[in-house]
Automatic annotation (TrEMBL):
SMART domains to which the protein is assigned, alphabetical: Ca_chan_IQ (SM01062)
Domain of life from the UniProt record: Eukaryota
The name this protein goes by in its record: Voltage-dependent calcium channel alpha-1 subunit IQ domain-containing protein
Protein family membership: Belongs to the calcium channel alpha-1 subunit (TC 1.A.1.11) family.
Species the sequence originates in: Hymenochirus boettgeri
Protein's GO biological process: calcium ion import across plasma membrane
Length: 426
């Protein structure tokens, strides 16, 4: 601020250097971990540090902050004002934007702001049309009013040119003294010296049309156009927050963010043992939620029956497709292999350019020897129930609680039937 003490300047400079050093170390560590860029499958697609937009933004902040520190030291050491560092000091403020990448609520607000821009151009076009029409009308009706410094129609506010008319209307749209401008355009005003008025008609410019002209313009701007902006933003915010049972693009962002924690090298696959933990961290409808018990989550994975690679990993595309398919109940009833074949036929018909490799990855073709996550977790649950049943038998509790024993037995039988249905194509 103006007139700050030397001690305050020194403290701010030290804090600036400390934060710059911390952000620089963070960027260097991320570059070492993720590498600057990695080519994937000989395609023009690069993964790594700069694949994340937030990392790119962080790197710009770090570079700008380093330049700010260097120029600040050079200016203070040489005692010269030849180098302007005002621009680079903006990077100090931009560090606060990093907070947008933290927290679910802030990300939701940011996503709302971004999605609103898709509809705002149409609102902006409507506003431009409104300003254009009213500016042209104002030039025709009030363009001859003389510019006088002691009135609202002066060299800064007038209707004599189109740009000036638009600027004047913009001022009226904000509500600043629009009534005074309207009164300055009423009949009986002095005409401009360069206008084509006759002798004796020097005070005949202006019109009573100014009353409906300015009132309608202000009402349209204040009660219609501005509310359209608010409506677009509120509609997007309501869409993102109203009902989490409706799948949306923001669910994909959440899935990618949590998946990247289990797949830091962006290989597109994670261990099958991490799948249940991953899906319990993702909120419904896409995931299971943290309140979902581990055993219930395993049962849902049995029903999803995602393909399992030979190295014990599960693919990103297969996991996401299975989650969306389960959430929307797409071909999930009846025989699994028949449902898969019907779904493959639908995908081939609608998305003809889908590669067979990707199709086989998300919806595996019929086969007797395929290994799936469903079979693994069905085996895991059967073994878990059997161990519990055996433990209860050893403790002599099998005959004491027949209802509970029957429930456990039925659960084991149900899982065994599910396992048989997954392994037997017929």
């Amino acid at each position: 601020h103006y007139g700050q003490s030397d001690i305050f300047n020194d403290v701010m400079d030290v804090m600036n250097m400390v934060f710059t050093a911390v952000f620089t170390v963070e960027m260097v560590l991320k570059l070492i971990a993720f590498k600057p860029k990695i080519c994937v499958a000989k395609k023009e697609r690069w993964l790594g540090y700069f694949s994340d937009a937030w990392n790119t933004f962080d790197s710009l902040i770090v570079i700008g902050s380093i330049v700010d520190v260097v120029l600040s030291e050079a200016e203070s050491s040489e005692d010269s004002a030849r180098i302007s560092i005002t621009f680079f000091r903006l990077f100090r403020v931009m560090r606060l934007v990093k907070l947008l990448s933290r927290g679910e609520g802030i990300r939701t607000l940011l996503w709302t702001f971004i999605k609103s821009f898709q509809a705002l151009p149409y609102v902006a076009l409507l506003i431009a049309m409104l300003f254009f029409i009213y500016a042209v009308i104002g030039m025709q009706v009030f363009g001859k009013v003389a510019m006088r410094d002691n009135t609202q129609i002066n060299r800064n506010n007038n209707f004599q040119t189109f740009p000036q008319a638009v600027l004047l209307l913009f001022r009226c749209a904000t509500g600043e003294a629009w009534q005074d401008i309207m009164l300055a355009c009423l009949p009986g005003k002095r005409c401009d010296a360069e206008s084509d008025f006759n002798i004796g008609e020097e005070f005949t410019c202006g019109s009573y049309f100014a009353i409906p002209y300015f009132i309608t313009f202000y009402m349209l701007c204040a009660f219609l156009i501005i509310n359209l902006f608010v409506a677009v933003i509120m509609d997007n915010f309501d869409y993102l927050t109203r009902d989490w049972s409706i799948l949306g693009p923001h669910h994909l962002d959440e899935f990618k963010r949590i998946w990247s924690e289990y797949d830091p090298e962006a290989k597109g696959r994670i261990k099958h043992l991490d799948v249940v933990t991953l899906l319990r961290r993702i909120q419904p409808p896409l995931g299971f939620g943290k309140l979902c018990p581990h055993r219930v989550a395993c049962k849902r994975l049995v029903a999803m029956n995602m393909p399992l690679n030979s190295d014990g990993t599960v693919m990103f595309n297969a996991t996401l497709f299975a989650l969306v398919r389960t959430a929307l109940k797409i071909k999930t009833e009846g025989n699994l292999e028949q449902a898969n074949e019907e779904l493959r036929a639908v995908i081939k018909k609608i998305w003809k350019k889908t590669s067979m490799k990707l199709l086989d990855q998300v919806v595996p073709p019929a086969g007797d020897d395929e290994v799936t996550v469903g079979k693994f977790y069905a085996t895991f649950l059967i073994q878990d129930y059997f161990r519990k049943f055996k433990k209860r038998k050893e403790q002599g509790l099998v005959g004491k609680y027949p209802g509970k024993n029957s429930t456990v037995a039925l659960q084991v039988i149900g899982l065994f039937i599910s396992y048989i249905s997954l392994t037997d194509p017929h």
